[in-house]
């Protein structure tokens, strides 16, 4: 992953530098791949892509990681062009959940402002998701509204857990209420599971390979079983990494309270698996069979292309959709960009 740092050849661009990103044209871009389905050119949108804002982590006394580029430059555009990705939805993984209210307010204001400035300057290629200080739910609601209404951001990104609090905790209801009121899409990204770190040591990068999808699985399950999606039925939630393990073993969720009714204290309005048809998922699940199964569980209207850039999980995300058998042209077009345009309000 350090290759993102080693291959930089940038010259600063004044307007973009003001936003905390650097953007250059020092390297001749690759020929831009045009994706065509059924004779129709498709606008491809990657809804799972990361960046960072210069100076933000320093406000928390943290050192920026070398694997997340502070700079969005020509190398990023080159890879987007080669892969056939027209637009990236940029999000920033939370690192600020321990911040007190004052610091969280200043950090998020700076970060959202600079991200919005960058995306506005390059609106043909990037849109941004607001950061929110979810450890202060009422403040997070304000930050979401400001990000969407004043800064032109297209929703928000949150972690799968906030310190030790699950997203389904009633303390976060003010934020979910605001998201539902605004019709704002909320992208849920895992943060690993440090409480399992001792069991996940050793070969295989299990702290990522297992912990990240497991974190998302737990978060979504709580949102379903604690009734959050009943209280806020119009919430637009999007889960990273295909929703973790939940869609792959969803039917067990339906059987839990049937088998052990004494351990279920809330009555849901519908079967647990039915809620998966109102949640959105990215397509970062690697195989045609996995994608086919996710579509069977949630529906093609709920799936969007995702790469997890700059992590090199995949360079074939577009072909993954194009080559999965059994999909109609309408479904491929929707997954490649149509669903994302609708959910995040992106003009295509």
Sequence-ordered SSE layout with sheet pairings:
Layout: H1 3-6, H2 14-17, E1 35-37, E2 40-42, E3 45-50, H3 56-59, H4 74-83, E4 87-91, H5 101-121, E5 126-128, E6 130-131, H6 137-149, E7 156-159, E8 161-162, E9 165-166, H7 173-182, E10 185-189, H8 206-209, H9 211-225, H10 228-231, E11 236-239, H11 251-259, E12 280-282, H12 288-298, E13 303-304, H13 317-322, H14 329-344
Parallel strand pairs: 3-4, 4-5, 6-7, 7-10, 10-11, 11-12, 12-13
Antiparallel strand pairs: 1-2, 8-9
Helix pairs in contact: 6-7
Characterization of this structure:
The chain is globular and about 60 Å long. It is built from 14 helices and 13 strands. It has one domain: Metal-dependent hydrolases (TIM Barrel, Alpha-Beta Barrel), CATH 3.20.20. A hairpin with a 2-residue loop joins strand 8 (161-162) and strand 9. The two termini are 31 Å apart. The strands form four sheets. The chain has a six-stranded parallel sheet. It is of the alpha/beta class and 348 residues long. Residues 1-27 have low confidence and may be disordered.
């Amino acid at each position: 992953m350090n290759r993102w740092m080693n291959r930089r050849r940038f010259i600063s661009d004044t307007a973009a530098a003001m936003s905390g990103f650097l953007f250059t044209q020092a390297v001749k871009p690759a020929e831009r791949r045009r994706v065509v389905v059924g004779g129709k050119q498709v606008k491809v949108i990657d809804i799972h892509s990361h960046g960072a804002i210069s100076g933000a982590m320093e406000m928390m006394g943290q050192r920026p990681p070398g694997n997340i580029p502070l700079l969005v430059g020509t190398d990023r555009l080159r890879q987007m062009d080669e892969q056939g990705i027209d637009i990236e939805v940029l999000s920033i993984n939370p690192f600020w959940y321990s911040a007190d209210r004052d610091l969280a307010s200043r950090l998020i204001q700076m970060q959202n402002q600079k991200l919005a400035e960058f995306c506005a300057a390059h609106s043909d290629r990037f849109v941004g998701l607001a950061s929110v200080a979810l450890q202060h739910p009422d403040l997070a609601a304000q930050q979401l509204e400001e990000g969407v209404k004043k800064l032109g951001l297209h929703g928000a990104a949150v972690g799968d857990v906030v310190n030790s609090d699950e997203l389904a905790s009633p303390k976060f209801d003010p934020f979910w209420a605001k998201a539902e009121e605004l019709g704002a899409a909320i992208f849920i990204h895992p943060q690993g599971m440090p409480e399992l770190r001792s069991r996940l040591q050793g070969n295989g990068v299990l702290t990522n390979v297992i912990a990240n999808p497991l974190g998302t699985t737990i978060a979504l399950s709580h949102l379903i079983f604690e009734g959050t999606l009943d209280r806020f039925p119009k919430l637009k939630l999007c889960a990273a990494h295909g929703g973790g393990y939940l869609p792959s073993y969803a039917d067990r969720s339906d059987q839990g309270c049937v088998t052990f009714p004494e351990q279920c204290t809330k009555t849901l309005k519908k079967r647990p698996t039915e809620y998966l048809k109102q949640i959105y998922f990215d397509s970062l699940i690697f195989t045609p069979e996995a994608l086919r199964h996710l579509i069977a569980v949630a529906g093609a209207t709920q799936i969007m292309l995702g790469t997890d850039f700059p992590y090199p999980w995949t360079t074939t995300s577009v072909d993954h959709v194009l080559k999965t058998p059994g999909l109609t042209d309408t479904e491929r077009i929707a997954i490649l960009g149509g669903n994302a345009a609708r959910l995040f309000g992106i003009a295509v």
